[in-house]
Amino acid sequence: MPSEAKIAGATLVSTNPATGEVLAELACASADDVRTAVQRAKSAQPQWQATPVRARIAVLRRFQELLNERRMDVARLICREAGKPAAEALATEVLVVLDAAQFCIHNAHRFLRDKPLPHANLAMKTKRGKLVREPYGVIGIVAPWNYPFSIPAIETLGALVAGNAVVLKPSECTPLVALELERLLLAAGVNPHLMQVVVGEGPVGAALVESPVDKLIFTGSVATGKRVGEAAARRLLPVVLELGGKDPMIVLDDADLEVATSGALWAAFMNAGQTCLSLERCYVHRSLYEPFLSKCREKIAKLRVGNGIDSEVEIGPMIHERQLKIVEEQVNDAVQRGARLLAGGKRLTELGPNFYAPTLLADVTNDMRLMQEETFGPVLPVAPFDSDEEVIRVANDSEFGLAASVWTGSRRRGEAMAARIKAGTVMLNDMISCFGIAEAPHGGFKQSGIGRTHGEIGLQEMVQTKYVDVDLIPGIRKVWWFGYGRKYQQQMNGFIDVLFARSWAKKLKGALRSAGLFRRSTRI
Ligand code: NAD
Questions:
Q1: Are both 364 and 460 inside the same structural domain?
Q2: Which residue has a Cα nearest atom 13 of ligand 1?
Q3: 142: Cβ below 6 Å to ligand 1?
Q4: Same domain? 137 vs 153
């Protein structure tokens, strides 16, 4: 298993989590390799920045075509290395990346072109300003294993189209998927120095943070995110941190029970519950509570768990033993503290090394570990509530704030609840799928992170905004330059009254006092 192999010498072992089969042994990058990759990227980036945006977009278009052609190969590779069903990889990784590429293709030119910046200040009326968006240079990307293709691909496409080079450190669990992404981009025409993958465990990520990258986009756990944030702060390296979640689902008394239960199962169990936006806490109005539980139980019995290479399978294995143990501990703790186990709660060793049965727990309370820590496994914990006030309080009772969902027949009621939930995204009557909307910004409140990826706000993270100002009368010295004195002070006071006094009489007096300000000759 990758988790146990650590770096044996300088080798990383990629393993199929469904079978334990070794897929590949790869040489790990050293800290020197990481620095060399970043230096190569730095040398290649200026030429890429000078390449017209339309030409950069053409490369993304070729990447999109290639990915579309090879989509089943990519989906199967994701399945073999990360365990999720190939059909799910197609929908939640390949399709999402094709759409993100489309977003860049359609919007990057408009977003990146210079924008005039009109201003109001009368004193500055001889000036014209514009906003220019410049790439940072080299963007370091550190990625997790749970969306091994879509997360680094979306970030890489945004970085590249904005004119940056990328050095990507994928998760130690999923290096092959990252190398496939690199292959596709190179085949589309990206210079090999502009997109490089450095393979290895945590220390390789740490080496990337310490290397001379110009910005870092990190996606992973809160604990690692804090370490990355600290290291970055020491050198004021700008970072985006996309971290964990503990997303609540709120089922109001007017929700459609059939829809809400099917949605709950998908949101809790897709990718074996290993999604940052997974349903991790489910609060159901007491009037629907028991019917909700029995419907969930009925539907869980119909779920097909197994090796996701079989297209009939809906839930694959967990990524590794370490993650499985966390889930077991949290479920056992909840049961010991009074939660009712209604389904699952055990390993499925007959299927392979890392399978855990889809698990339904009732009567959980917010003080249980299961309701406070990220579980990241196929577990659906359900608790009843009696009032909107109460459920808003418990939903917000978390150090995380990635996303949330409200299930209701009333859009007005749902939107009113959404306004009170502290999370980066709130969905009505669905979960997780916001990640598949290329325009929608993705990121969290509270400990769930800093900054955003996806859409225009995500593109904004890939550029530094420069303000360029042109003086239209370059041949005159400016009134605010040296040459201060009593008269100047009076004139300036008068001018400020013209602009900001509330009464017309005071404005008029100010105009008289400021006379001559713009004609005064500066002393120096
Ligand atoms: P992780 O924090 O263990 O690892 C993430 C990446 O960081 C890996 O590539 C790892 O090798 C690297 N890393 C480890 N130590 C490092 C260090 N000191 N410096 C730099 N890099 C280092 O997370 P994981 O187990 O791979 O992924 C699961 C976590 O990611 C969950 O908490 C999940 O919620 C979160 N996640 C968040 C989002 C989001 O968009 N908010 C998306 C997917 C996953």
A1: no
A2: 202
A3: yes
A4: yes
